[in-house]
Amino acid sequence: MEQYAIKGGNPLVGEVEIGGAKNAALAILAAATMTDETVLIENVPDVRDTNVMMQAMESIGVIINRVDRHTVKVNASQVHNLVIKGDYIKKIRASYYLLGALLGKYSKAEVALPGGCNIGLRPIDQHIKGFRALGANVGIEHGLIIAETNKLKGNHIYMDVVTVGATMNVMMAAVMAEGQTVIENAAKETHVVDLANFLNSMGANVKGAGTDVIRIKGVSKLHGTEYGIIPDQIEAGTFMFAAAVTKGDVTVKNVIPKHLESISAKLLEIGCEIEESDDAVRVVAAKPLGHTHVKTLPYPGFPTDMQPQITVALGLSAGTSIVTESIFENRFKYVDELTCMGANIKVESNTAIIDGVPKYTGANITAPDLRAGAALVIAGLAADGITTVDDIKYIERGYEDFHLKLQSLGAQIDLVTTERDLQKFRLKVG
Q1: Which CATH superfamily is domain 22-228 in?
Q2: How far apart are CA 160 and CA 157, in angstroms?
Q3: Distance, CA of 346 to CA of 323 (rounded, Å)
C-alpha cells in the first residue's frame, strides 16, 4: 500500500518551486523523435507520465540520455520500429502524440489505444479526422491505432470541438506534410503554444498557435535544438488553492503569471489576496472564503484540471456556489470522497451545487484520478484530524515530490507504505 497520511489544520506558508508542464513535456518529448539530430530538453518534470513516455520511445530505438533529473537528451536516429504497445503505455493518454510525430516523419505508426485517467470519454475521433485529412489511412485493429500514408499532404482542417490533444497531434503530423495546413477551431492552451515554439526551434514553420487558427507550412526535415519547457499551470494552481484552503500564505515561483489569470481571478473573487511579480504569484488567505460560480472552459477560461481544487475550496466557503463542468462529463467522481469528509455537495449531471461547511473532518479516502487526488490531499490539509489518501499512483502521474513540497510549506503529510508507518505518523503528529 502506498498512501499519504495527513494531519490537517496547519496553514501552508512559504515558497514553492513549480516544475515543467507535464502536458507540454509529453508532446515535446514525442516531437523530439521527428529529427535524427540530438535534441536537448530542459525543465522536464520527473513524473510517472513523462517517464512512461520516455520508456515507450526507448522501446522503438530512441536513445534517451538523462543529463540530470530535469534535463534529457533525445536522439531518434536509430529508430527501428514504428509499433508502440505494451501494458505500460496504456497507462497514459499522451501515448497518442507518438502517432502524429512518427506519422509525420516516417509516414507510418502503430500505437496502443490510450488509457490515463478515467474522467469520461475522450474520443480520438478528431485525431483520426485530422490524419485522414492529411492523406493517411487510419484504422483500429487489435487495440492499436494504425496510421500510414505514402505522403502526407497539407489540407484545411476544421476541428468539430476544441481539443488540445488533436490540435497538437495534427500539428506534429502537418509539420512535415507537403504544402500548407490550416487547423481551424484549434485549442489555444499554453502547451499548444509551447509545442509550436519547440517545433519552430527545430526548423518547422508554425504560425498562429495560441489563436484558433494555426497555419503550418510543411518542411522536408527538422534539426536538433535546445529547449526549456514552460512551467506547469496546473501544479501552480493546485498550490495556490492549497494556500486558500489552509488559510495560508504561499508564493509559487518559476511560473508565468499570465497563464494563471483565470485561477488568480477566482481566488480574488472568493476573498484571497494575490500579488504578482515577473515569475511568481503570492496567494494570501487572511479572511474567510466567500462563494462564487465557476464554469470550466478551454483556455483562457478556467481549466477543467483545476475544477476539483476549486470545488474543495468552495466546500469551505460561506454561502452557496455552483461549479459547472463543460469539458469532461465524468469529472465529479471525487465528490463522494469529499462528502465523507463532511462536504455538502449535490451533483446533477455536469453541475455541482455546493453549500459551504465550516470545516472538513479527516477520513480514509481514495484518489479517483490525478487532479481529484491532488484536490483531496488539499482537503485533508484543511481537515480536523487525520486523513489517509489511497491510490496515490494517480497523483504521482502529474505531481513531482508532491508531499515533499507540501512538507516544505509546513504541511504534516507523509508517504506511508505499511500500517506500522501509519501508526508512527499518528504518534508523531499527536
Answers
A1: Enolpyruvate transferase domain (3.65.10.10)
A2: 9
A3: 10
Q: What is the mean pLDDT of the chain?
A: 96
In the residue annotation, 340 being an active-site residue is answered as no
What does DSSP say about strands 144-148 and 344-348: parallel, antiparallel, or unpaired?
unpaired
Q: Where are the domains of the chain?
A: 3-19+231-429, 22-228
- Catalytic: which of 26, 27, 117, 267? 117
| 35-51 b/e (C-beta count within 10 Å ≥ 16 → b) | bebbbbbebbbebbbbb
- The answer for residues whose C-beta is within 8 angstroms of residue 339's C-beta and 6 or more apart is 345
**Rounded CA separation 271/288 (Å):** 7
Helix (H) / strand (E) containing 395: helix 393-396
pLDDT number for residue 278 = 97
Q: Give the pLDDT score at 330.
A: 82
Q: Are 187 and 299 in contact (CB under 8 A)?
A: yes
Q: What is the spatial distance between Cα 333 and Cα 172, in angstroms, rounded to a whole number?
A: 33
What is the rounded CA–CA span in Å between residue 335 and residue 241?
Answer: 17
pTM exceeding 0.85 = yes
CATH class of this structure's domain 3-19+231-429 = alpha beta
Q: Taking the CB of residue 65, how many other CB atoms lie within 10 A of it?
A: 11
Per-residue pLDDT tens over the stretch 40-96: 999 999 999 999 999 999 999 999 999 999 999 999 999 999 999 888 787 787 889
Q: Which of 109-123, 174-188, 304-318, 414-428 has the lowest mean pLDDT?
A: 109-123
